[in-house]
Amino acid sequence: MIFIDSALGKKTPYTPIWMMRQAGRYLSEYRESRAKAGSFLDLCKNVELATEVTLQPIDILDVDAAILFSDILVVPLEMGLPLEFLAGEGPKFNQTIRSESDFKALKKDAYKNLTYVYDAVSSIRAKLSKDKALIGFCGSPWTLATYMIEGEGSKTYTHSKKMLYSNPKLLHALLESITQELVSYLGEQIRAGANAVMVFDSWASALELSAYLNFSWEYMKKIAKAIKSQYPHIPVMLFPKGVGAYLEHLDGEFDVFGVDWGTPMSLAKEKLGGKYVLQGNLEPARLYNRQAMLEGVEQILSVMNEDRGHIFNLGHGMIPDLPRENAIELVQLVREKTKR
Ligand code: CP3
């Protein structure tokens, strides 16, 4: 698998490409499968339909890797927090973790209830072509904790930060228990057939440097180390979004560093390129306009077109109304331009 070779720093015949949120509303096929499933969570829990939507971007875009169709929030859901996805509003938990007693009420060994995810992984792996990789994933402990504490997406992270600065012990206890769940969760995904795993730290940018290192990166590293020690051949990919100013502090035992669109690739290469394979980082909105997309690709490849060390991706997820023709052309373009 060219994606896995590249993720492990080996030479490949071209630069592999996939796109974050490559399965989603910009594809009419996805919208049809989702309508069949009922709700978004029903889609995540339906092994047959989750397999179908995972494979859609492989067939339509011909990307080099599939990513399991699920959501980072199924872990807090199985830890005991009822979850809803409201149309146009995003995820919402009807219960939150704000106190010691809220924390104590969380279920232990939640990963054991996520069998619908492991079943989807083995079903996808069985149907996916042998030269394409399957990526498993989870959210970072910090990003999941913010959802559990706030109850929804947030612009200010008020309750999470209040806990961080007034009751750091409780926040650490919560982060530690999420971390334990995630190590087991990713391990089960690997045993079911995932070829690589990725940790999404979408709300990394909410924290100042010292808080970030203490309350998020530390736990990202812990997960990476645990997975690498048990599964050394499985690439571990970390995506901390919005921490371009902290790059020189971000080390650990992992293989691929996901670069978001706000961090110039040249800066990421200078600070981290010698240590990790870099993944990224086309600004997704460039796909609105073909010319803007072509220019963005040129910019990235002028920094990264080498025989190793790069996986092409967007710098964050696909936007629901991006034109699919541009996504299809992007894959072909990167493949042609990086052939060696
Ligand atoms: O194709 C893929 O990348 C795989 C599937 C995937 C989804 N969510 C499907 C999804 C992955 C890897 C995620 C991760 C995820 N989920 C993250 C981390 C990555 C990131 O974007 O920063 C986060 C923060 C979430 C939480 C989440 N899930 C939000 C905030 C939302 C609502 C926003 C939106 O786009 O509506 C979701 C819902 C969600 N997860 C959708 C999809 C395809 C849209 C649901 C729908 O209406 O069909």
TrEMBL record:
Catalysed reaction, written as an equation? uroporphyrinogen III + 4 H(+) = coproporphyrinogen III + 4 CO2
Q: In which pathway does it act?
A: Porphyrin-containing compound metabolism; protoporphyrin-IX biosynthesis; coproporphyrinogen-III from 5-aminolevulinate: step 4/4
Primary gene name? hemE
Location relative to the cell: Cytoplasm
A Pfam family (short name) is: URO-D
Q: CDD domains attached here?
A: URO-D
Gene Ontology biological process terms in this record: protoporphyrinogen IX biosynthetic process from glutamate
Source organism of the structure: Helicobacter brantae
Q: What is this protein called?
A: Uroporphyrinogen decarboxylase
Homology family: Belongs to the uroporphyrinogen decarboxylase family.
GO molecular function, one example?
uroporphyrinogen decarboxylase activity
